[in-house]
Amino acid sequence: MSAPSSLLQGIALLDAAVVQERSGRQGHNASRLSEATGIERSRVSRLTRELLDLGYLERDDTAVFHAGDEYFRAAGALSRPWLRAAREDLRVLASRLGVSAQLMAAEGPGAILLRSEKGPGVSADYLRPGIVTPIWCTGPGRALLWDHTREELQVLLDDVQFVGVGGPGAARSVDELHGLLERDRERGMVDAHEEYVEGVQEYALPIRDDQGIVASIGVSGAALSARRVREARGALHDAHAHLTRLVQEP
Question: Is 76-248 CATH 3.30.450.40?
Answer without folding.
Answer: yes
